[in-house]
Amino acid sequence: QNLLDIIKLTSFCVGHEDANYVLNGILFEVYKNQITAVSTDGKRLAVAKCNLSPNQSELKNKIEFILAVKTVYEIQKIIKEEKEDIFFCADKNKIGFDLKHTQLITRPIEGEFPSYDQYIPKPDANKIIINRREFLAALKRAAILSTYDYQGVKIEAKKDNLALSKATPQVGEVQENLNCNYTGKHIIIGFNPNYLIDVLRNIEEEEINFELYGADKPAVLRKNNYIYLVLPIKI
User: Fold this and answer.
1) Which residue, among 156, 151, 130, 70, has the nearest Cα to 106 in the 3D structure?
2) How is the chain split among helix, strand and coil, in percent rounded to 5?
3) What is the pLDDT of residue 130?
4) Which residues have C-beta within 8 Å of that of residue 30, sequence separation ≥ 6?
5) What is the pLDDT of residues 138-191, one digit of tens each?
């Protein structure tokens, strides 16, 4: 993964509430030979990591800053147009990005980002291994029936089967069974389908690992250098 990848994997998870202004941006942590990007809207959390250039000496002091998502989108555009290495410098009041033909200087968001590590559970045995495209397509079909009052999609995991269903009064209902690799305990859990669609459309793996901890606990998608945590909803 590179900087463009970790922006892509976290920017959709940023909050949009003015009251919680630190959640309206992405936290960047630069330490040793790695950059970590973190975003959350309070209902889900994304953490993505990538390595610094091999030419960069290891940083002994951690650098932290929060960038507004609008600024991150501008950086994303610049990176797409420029294929060179990116240089950046951090001050208390300014963050500078320097590419071959472009310089961008911005002010970070002031404030304390939540201590996100404490919310990430350890890997669990109740792990579903499922085809990403099939899961995504089924969620999209179910999401068509979502309304403001009836957002939740029900997921039932049992031996080598994931049943996905959605029923909305006066609109319709859908039920699908997907093949998967699962040997954990029987779990029924509800999610806002859009929170799962967002992450599945931004990763490229054919198969994903989806961990369930219980009907009232967050579910976690893990892959190399990436963790996505999403809270369930009542169904």
Assistant:
1) 70
2) 25, 40, 40
3) 96
4) 36, 52, 59, 62, 63, 64, 90
5) 999 999 988 888 889 999 999 999 999 998 888 889 999 999 999 889 999 999
Q: Residues 223, 43: contact at Cβ < 8 Å?
A: no
142 CB neighbour count, 10 Å cutoff? 26
Side-chain half-sphere CA neighbours of 20 within 13 A: 15
Give the number of other Cβ atoms within 10 Å of residue 4's Cβ: 14
pLDDT above 90 coverage of the chain, percent: 59
The vertex-61 CA angle with 55 and 66, nearest 5°, equals 95
Given a contact cutoff of 8 angstroms between Cβ atoms, the answer to whether 161 and 177 are in contact is yes
Give the CA count within 13 Å in the CB-facing half-sphere of 27.
24
In the 8-state DSSP scheme, what is residue 107? Answer: P
Indicate the average pLDDT of the chain.
90
Interatomic CA distance for residues 52 and 50, integer angstroms: 7
Q: What tokens were used for 7?
A: 């922006």
pTM given for the model: 0.92
What is d(CA 127, CA 208) in angstroms, rounded to the nearest whole number? 10
